[in-house]
């Protein structure tokens, strides 16, 4: 009886410590769930700090930013006492997010880096900068080419009896809804290239569904535009179609899929 009790006393600590030892073995050098969550929180905090600092920079140059934002529309008005102030804050936050976007992409890339192979790291090292560049190209294309044409079209309905009186808050919401989608739309060739490289799509597949994509482009244009007119929908649908053709060209003639 004494030997059995002694045996249980010896085995008990091993059983208590077994889960911890098993976690180390199963972990196999990788991070635990708590470590992943801790790192995720750290990455999110850095992204928020970068956005906050960018917003401060944006608010410092708010007069210059508002000057360029209002160029397509001219003079704006605010209907409530605090409308201009909160619009300035909104503009500064959006500018801060755009300024912090490279850092945000970098933090996302660094978070997934330990789980990637050397080949995948090399690919993402090219994809991440390319995605940032394409996003800003989409914003520039929309702001300098599409937005002025859209504003001119809408203001063209005015006459002697009907004069446009644009609210600064509503105008800025319109600009955001009009410009930001182009940043994501311009990512389309990159997404198609990645999918083609992975073998998920082929040029024959893209050619087969070309007509459907043209139809869906106008559907997307109707969903994300702030107004229901055909002109605005076409201004978004046509770049989608062109970018789709660019992706098709890359998959067929460069990747030879």
UniProtKB/TrEMBL annotation:
Entry GO MF terms: proton motive force dependent protein transmembrane transporter activity
Transmembrane annotation, as ranges: 44-62, 85-109, 121-151, 171-191, 212-228, 234-255
Entry membrane topology: Multi-pass membrane protein
UniProt-listed GO biological process terms: intracellular protein transmembrane transport; protein transport by the Tat complex
Keyword field: Cell membrane, Membrane, Protein transport, Translocation, Transmembrane, Transmembrane helix, Transport
Main location: membrane
Subcellular location as annotated: Cell membrane; Membrane
Superkingdom assignment: Bacteria
Keyword Cell membrane: yes
GO cellular component: TAT protein transport complex
InterPro entries recorded: TatC
Function of the protein: Part of the twin-arginine translocation (Tat) system that transports large folded proteins containing a characteristic twin-arginine motif in their signal peptide across membranes.
Subunit structure: Forms a complex with TatA.
Similarity comment: family membership: Belongs to the TatC family.
Protein name: Sec-independent protein translocase protein TatC
Gene this chain is encoded by: tatC
């Amino acid at each position: 009886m004494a030997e059995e009790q002694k045996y249980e006393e010896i085995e008990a600590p091993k059983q208590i410590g077994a889960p911890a030892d098993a976690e180390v073995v199963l972990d196999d050098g990788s991070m635990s769930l708590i470590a992943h969550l801790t790192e995720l929180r750290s990455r999110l905090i850095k992204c928020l700090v970068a956005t906050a600092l960018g917003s401060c920079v944006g608010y410092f140059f708010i007069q210059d930013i508002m000057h360029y934002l209002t160029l397509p529309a001219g003079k704006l008005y605010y209907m409530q006492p605090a409308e201009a102030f909160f619009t300035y804050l909104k503009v500064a936050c959006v500018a801060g997010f755009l300024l912090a976007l490279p850092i945000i992409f970098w933090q996302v890339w660094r978070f997934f880096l330990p789980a990637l192979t050397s080949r995948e790291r090399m690919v993402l090292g090219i994809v991440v900068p390319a995605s940032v560049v394409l996003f800003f190209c989409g914003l520039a294309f929309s702001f300098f080419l599409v937005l002025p044409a859209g504003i001119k079209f809408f203001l063209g309905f005015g006459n002697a009896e009907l004069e446009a009186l644009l609210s600064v808050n509503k105008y800025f919401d319109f600009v955001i809804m009009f410009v930001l989608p182009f940043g994501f739309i311009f990512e389309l060739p990159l997404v198609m290239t990645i999918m083609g490289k992975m073998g998920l799509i082929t040029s024959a597949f893209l050619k087969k569904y070309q007509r459907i994509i043209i139809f869906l482009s106008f559907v997307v244009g109707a969903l994300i535009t702030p107004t229901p007119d055909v002109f605005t929908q076409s201004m978004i649908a046509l770049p989608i179609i062109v970018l789709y053709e660019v992706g098709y060209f890359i998959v067929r003639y460069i990747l030879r899929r």
